[in-house]
User: Fold these one by one.
Assistant:
Number 1:
Amino acid sequence: MKYKDGVILAADTLASYGSEARYKDVCRLKKVGEYTLLGGGGELSDFQYLSDQLDEMADEDWLNEDGCFMGPKEYSSYIGRVMYNRRSKFNPLYNQFVVVGKKKDEPAHLMYVDHQGTAFEENFVATGFGMHLGIPLLRNSWRADMSLDEAKALATKCLEVCFYRDCRAYCKIHIGVCNGTSVDISAPIPLNHFWGHGAWTEKRLEDDDPTATW
């Protein structure tokens, strides 16, 4: 989501293998170039493939040595064309991407791109189950003049709800921040969660008498 001085991006650290929560320390955020941050959901190998393509672009950009570097608008446009091209060949990259960034004094940029090449700009977006669970929270609470701490708190709240409600979510997250001068990705942050609700822990009647009915 955008905030007063830039844009932030957050994702949990889980990479699933089918229904198995296989890898629990994966960073699904990636710094691209000098001013851009990429977040990806979906097929991790496709995310890694596109990441390698973007690294090659960033290296070529640096080798020009002209003092001009691509920003989030250029990278998001490229990713959108790649995704649409692969879709048109019936060989899509199975991902949903969020491309964010802020280049110096330019306005913050945030774009959503999916496996079909659908791409649009917004003030806040979510992928996967976050579209259903997080977007309502963002619609109710997001403001254009939010501070960084307020934006982080809102992103954390959205991911807490996703962790409670989505069995493919996890209780550790990374938060990335782009403010026009730097791109930073945090160390893994544990989410607060509580599972000791009485309705889940109280002894049930049928535990003593399997033939009993409610």
Number 2:
Amino acid sequence: MQNKNILFAATLCVLSFCSPRGNCDFQKGPLKSTKVLGFSWENCGSAKDPAVMKALSLSPDPISIPGDLKANAAGSTSVAFTSPLSVNVTLEKEVAGFWVKVPCVDELGSCHYSDACQILDTLTPPGQDCPEPLHTYGIPCRCPFKAGDYSLPDSDFYLPNVDLPYWLTNGNYKVVGVLGSAGQELGCLKLTFSLHSA
């Protein structure tokens, strides 16, 4: 998932609270159903970044987990993405009016991933078709990613029931994901949302 694929996939992973290894087996807590409210996004890189998200829409609002999700997205990259492709994620939670950085716990939180290409190979091993709807629309799901424009029309997804980590509680969150390669920033995406569990 190049700029669009990697960042969009990261968005879906954040919403479904799956780690980059595709492992959703977090420590169980008393909260069973979750709603994601007020989802928004913006590019946060410099004007020189080659990877740019042009559109990203998720509905309904609130998004229910478990539940159905409709998404569309578009993005572009002016350079090819090859391994190693680093991803640096910063997760912050609003506490008493201040934004507090959430540490990296079990590969979720403010974590650095040295090669997203290896993570993508774990999610969809080489030789296997990309999952729907990526396959239908010719969107790659593993490295390398060619330079170009990518678009995902309105598509339906199902977010399964997962147990939240015990430390991921109700509140307002910000996530910043930065793609990089060979010490250069390729793109940056900032997501904001609120969690409400019951």
Number 3:
Amino acid sequence: MAYQTFRQEYLQVPPVTRAYTTACVLTTAAVQLELITPFQLYFNPELIFKNFQVWRLITNYLFFGPVGFNFLFNMIFLYRYCRMLEEGSFRGRTADFVFMFLFGGLLMTLFGLFVNLVFLGQAFTIMLVYVWSRRNPYVRMNFFGLLIFQAPFLPWVLMGFSLLLGNSIIVDLLGIAVGHIYFFLEDVFPNQPGGGRLLRTPSVLKAIFDTPEDDPNYNPLPEDRPGGFPWGEGQRLGG
């Protein structure tokens, strides 16, 4: 019975969120079990381009460190905001969501050539948080029950939290920069005088991922959204 309940809940998670979070958890489990080591996963341009270890372009986004507070914190935020994006502004647009992953990952990898980062998964999570926060500007956030602010400030609050923990803020700045570039090209520039849509999802992705949507206008209520954790919990103004 417990297995069936878990399986049912698992299959209700949107496909992109389910695939990415599962890959992250399985990668971490493989490292914990010493089936693989982080040295086989990290981002190393020399090994990628000279030794053709191209899997590193993907695996560096899948490992968030050993199981502990930092891993759980990142997994909660990754799952929560990836799912809210997929069930919110990307509902019925799986191909566009996959394209955002590809665009963000490519841009982050290019930036990664110039900064000393070996794993980019945390920066990718910040990118997802940034895009969600800009698309939900009127949602009020409650961070650990200590701070109340509106959603667009969330990435900067997380950066401050990283600073308090003694972590490098380069990771956060990279995620914010890539998230802002995507948000500007997708949401801002097309609505400017003389602007236009520069990011277009390839038709091959649409053919693979998009399926007819029963209710394209569906927008989940705040209480129906994933999570239930106090970290970054939002509430709409006037709701």
